[in-house]
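Hi there. Long-time user, first ticket. I'm pasting a complex I've been working with (about 410 residues overall). I'd like to know whether the download I got is complete or cut off, because the file seemed smaller than I expected. Thanks.
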Amino acid sequence: MGADYEWPWQYEFPPFFTIQPIPKTKEQQLISWRNLICDYHKSNRKWEVDTAGVVFQNKKIGRQLSPAAIRVVLQSLCDEGQGVMNGERCFVLWNSVAQWASLIHNWAVDRGLTNTVLTLFEIHGGDDTEGEPFHTMDIWLLHHVISYLEKEGKAELMLGDSDDFSDAGVKFF
Amino acid sequence: MRRNVGIGAINKQRLAREKLAQKGNEIAELQLMQVSQQMDVFKKSLEEFAMKYKNEIKKNPEFRARFQVMCSKIGVDPLASSKGFWAQLLGVGDFYYELGVQIVEVCLATRPTNGGIITMEDLVVRLGKSSGKTRKDVQPDDVFRAIGKLAVLGDGFKIVKVGKENLVQSVPGELTMDHTTALDIANKSGGRLTISSLEQMGWPELRINQTLDNLMDQGMIWIDDVDSSYWVPALFH
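Hi, the file is complete. Here it is re-exported in full:
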């Protein structure tokens, strides 16, 4: 667990783990959940939500979100652009897709790496991205962000045959 | 033998009464003059005092509270208007005006999570932390006064006594006796409220349900499905 992550007070608040029936209260509750998820994953540099993990389960107070409640929370996360589903898996976007896209594109431009083919793995784990906020970004999520750049005409994805993007490449413009 | 019944006697009596009345007026005037002189001296001393301890009044909450008490005893309200003599002299009007604005800010910011009720303790801590001006020295006494000044804006802000706790309510609407009773019970168990604890009050089911539903609707309590208990965010500790 990240040393600098501090759980919000709601995490100790038992009814936080029950989706509230009053719409106004529920709305506020979901804001708090989204903030908690973004902050937790950002502090711990975790990209994927672990639905069986500590986030949705506070053993100290013996409370956890039910699977149905987790779906509600993750749906809300995705609706607000703070998360994106890949099948059953949910990835956290503590920066929006547009923000990540711009961070990565700026990096490529600053390093003079435009019009060169880079592999997604180089961006994910290469020396060149050491210290960048997107270093270690999940490969699927990276592909998702770069797809956004592609739509903007700032990159071209070259998908290989592999399902895990291990041979996928990208050219930035 | 003089019978004192003639015209001369009546005139004499009238003259004596007039003289007495005149003398009386003179004395009253003199006294009034003396009193007003004393008041002038006193007011001057108070002003000098206020000038001299201006910084102390602003910075030291205990000093400020005592000064307030002193002023209110002689019928001077330094906060009555920010344009008033005292406010100009001391800037205390500004102090409470600024504090009032910060109270509104804190209450609005926390309203979504606490349904518009916050403990005095929590509010004072948050005011101390609030950005901008240093408000590390704010005391509940100051909050009471500032909220008193906010009252002119309508019934949006008030202080509700719940047991020993003072709650600042920033949403319009009356908290009924039943509401405050329920909040008091919750406060005694760290913010937790159960149906059985309300049954112990001898309340019938309908009364319990109405109270809980109402507090739920206002966002002042949250339900915990695990043990069907209710929790008050504002009183959770």
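A couple of notes from our side: Strands of chain A lie at 57-58, 63-64, 83-86, 89-92, 117-119, 155-158, 169-172. The domain at 9-92 of chain A is CATH 1.10.10.570 (Arc Repressor Mutant, subunit A).
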